[in-house]
Amino acid sequence: MRLLSPTKVRLLSFGRGDVLAGSGGPTVRSLTSPPLLTRRGLPKEKMSENGLMSRAKVLTIDTMNPTVKKVEYAVRGPIVQRAVELERELSEGMKKPFVEVIRANIGDAHAMGQQPITFFRQVLALCSYPELLNDSTFPEDAKSRAHRILQSCGGNSMGSYSASQGIDSVRQDVARYIERRDGGVSCDPDDIYLTTGASDGIVTMLKLLMCGEGAARTGVMISIPQYPLYSAALAELGAVQINYYLNEENCWSLDITELQRALDEARLHCNPRALCIINPGNPTGQVQSRECIEDVIRFAAKERLFLMADEVYQDNVYADGCQFHSFKKVLFEMGPEYSNTVELASFHSTSKCYMGECGFRGGYMEIINMDDDVKAQLTKLVSVRLCPPVPGQALMDLVVNPPQPGEPSYDNFIKERTATLSVLAEKAKLTEQVLNTVQGISCNPVQGAMYSFPRITIPKKAIEEALDKGQQPDMFYCMKMLEETGICLVPGSGFGQKEGTYHFRMTILPPTDKLQILLNKVKEFHQKFTQQYS
Amino acid sequence: PIRLESLSVPSLLKHVKGFSAEAERPAMNGVPQRGKLLTLDNMNPKVKRVEYAVRGPIVQRAVQIEKELREGVKKPFTEVIKANIGDAHAMGQKPITFLRQVLALCSYPELLKDNQFPEDAKKRAQRILEACGGHSIGAYSASQGIECIRHDVAHFIEKRDGGIPSNPDNIYLSTGASDAIVTILKLLVSGEGRDRTGVMISIPQYPLYSAALAELDAVQISYYLDEDKCWSLDVKELRRALYAARQHCNPRVLCIINPGNPTGQVQSRQCIEDVIRFAKEENLFLMADEVYQDNVYAEGCQFHSFKKVLFEMGPEYSSKVEMASFHSTSKCYMGECGFRGGYMEVINMDPEVKAQLTKLVSVRLCPPVPGQALLDLVVNPPQPDEPSYATFMKERTAVLAALAEKAKLTEQIFNTVPGITCNPVQGAMYTFPRISLPQKAIDKAKEEGQVPDMFYCMKLLEEEGICLVPGSGFGQREGTFHFRMTILPPTEKLKLVLKKIKDFHLRFTKEFS
Fold first, then answer.
1. Would you tell me which residues 146-205 of chain A have a C-beta closer than 8 angstroms to some C-beta of chain B?
2. pTM of the prediction?
């Protein structure tokens, strides 16, 4: 104890007061700095149970990054954690009013039993273990795709780093895909950045857009309800979230007067610079009309907003009369006045559509009209993470360059693709129909994407009980549903909703027979719940 | 200064209602044309400060030259050799058969019926698939990583560390080690002004650290490795750096890379103990980047994990010092960079903070599942009684033996060149030799607005087609110059590279003296 370091000596003299009060320590700094600074650099001490001084952690909830604390991500929030616990309890033999937990909280197609597209997986197996190229059981088109991908990898191996922007040949294939999709509107592979899922691309773009402090801080417009990646990223980046509300009465449509209202109000306290659109909608399942997209583009041009178009559900359109229109295509069809000026980033992914390959974390973004200097900064920024996962890039390549008519895998590919999409269309309809038979649940048509976001009426007594427990009423509802039926949904509050309204998000992905059971269980639960609290 | 900037007139005017936010500028034809909405001046200033030399201007030029060569432009060389990055497969290293067999089986489970695959590969694939939602690697995993893989990682760590327990709940799978390193730094950043988090990193360092700190707006605290003592780390120097930094920030974190990147040193057990004692005394969170843990070549050197040393120092340390250690599938004998697999183990982390960490990683859904599967095979490779064991060991040993040979070769050849001095490459995958540059060359570089070692490397690239990274990208003592070169090219090619660098250096020295 005689060999105390200077630090320890200082600590003995005033360390504890510092920690407990957080102010007033007799340091020089405290005269000139905010009180919190006094404990800086000094080991914090706290009294432990046995009366001995014990060090507090370096990293505590009080001293960690405050922006991280503000992050919320309901899709994998407390309700999912409880679902995992319940699964464990079931596996340990505990008695429950259900035999399995059904996770309808997340758009995870394969987890719900959807089979991978054979062609994709054949090519990935070939890329993983090129010895198989000598195997005659693989179709020639799969082999030639694998060969092409491997040739554009360093050392002909998926195990080498790719260019940070993504493999050249894959970016070229993406560009051609976009051109085909958009009726010939040209696409430059240099504007394509491959990503680690769409989330990565979205966060990267938002990051670029951040600047200013206080009233000059970047504001970003997002829909309510929204996919909580956006609110989470904005919280982490310290950006200002600007909510615009989708119109539930009009099938979750987007209304320009609402955009204008939100923007005008936001201008008083931040610097709105970006407008995010999810089309087809998540969690709301609407598909935007061409006209609405034009309006949005005109609005963005007029108000000088950077457009971010999240189009990961572009193949998931089910409703009659609905069609997917890419922002890029509409932008270019509006003429050079718009197509030369409006700055746009659009996002796509391997996780949704008919492939549902979430685990590979494949994706891309296309950037349009981005300033060259900023683009160079973007390229530099993505280089720090070296590259997106190469298997995901390979998969992305197959999605944008699937088997062509005349190739041996074509028929089977189309068969599998069509089957998946038509089953999804059927389930979209089924979900809407069944939920709308329940009194107190009203559900818009699931025009696209993979979710239903029905509105639920929660009796006043239930609301009060929830508030007593310090829970959001729809969280209370969903938690109760989970405990009683084993169905895991995400409460609407995790996505945002108009005050006084309640919703939940449910995927339509379970196999049809299971979905049917699930919908019936939701129905029964809702009726019981309503009765119990009225 | 940041505050002042944000109060500039244009930004204030933006908030006055009715004032047009549009920046008009005259175009050639006289019609006012709008500038871009997102420009270098109004983009995220933190992103602008990010630098990452390993893929910097020199690599961009290398890519251009490759294109020129393809287009038939005449050069004094026929191919560009990219010795800038630790990318083993790109340099011709073959993947480990067993790892790839299992990945093929996981990708296309139909192959499980195929007799050409060994039983142990099938068994591993089956086990991984069973742990995946819907038995598909196409399903999202838990955000922290697939549970059974986290268990395997924990067993691996226990075995490696002589039985010291590892809790699977403390394991987070990641998208390469970079992802996890940035995530932990992100948790640690707080405070403003003089209370802003400071992070101690070695100089030279792997520039992921400086890049992440720039982006997170943390204060970088540089401590210098001792080049004269084989890039060893000296606690006195740590203390100097720390005390100096306390004047202007709040130092909370100490990052160590062992074996070292770019410097190739392997830390002694004693030194690790000293570092741990220092971290405890000074209340620092330890980050141990141990991605090169199998890459130890020099005799008498051995890898000691920070975790093991920490626990061997007794509960006074092991129950207190907060630490995160990082590993990856990209280095060692496997070199599977493209899969972006990795993990971190967190030790003594506050449970509330851990809950925040779990929440934070959930936003990105999950690390790539093929990378998770690969990591599982790395931590749970074929065992002596399994059919793939012999081949696996043969392949693994061959890779590591060749690396050891190349490490020695590199050091030997460089040290024959007057004006190049090179420490032994004890571990990792790089050499970081010191080069003396003639004053005339330094002056010329400055004239051209370039850092002298960038000037040197750029000239080397143009004249010999060899792509290295200048030492300034990693940091070095002022007035000294270095470059980083991987030792990964196949031996014959490496010899050629070394000879070309030797010739170039002699020529360069003559030209500028």
1. 153-155, 157-164, 196-197, 199-200
2. 0.88
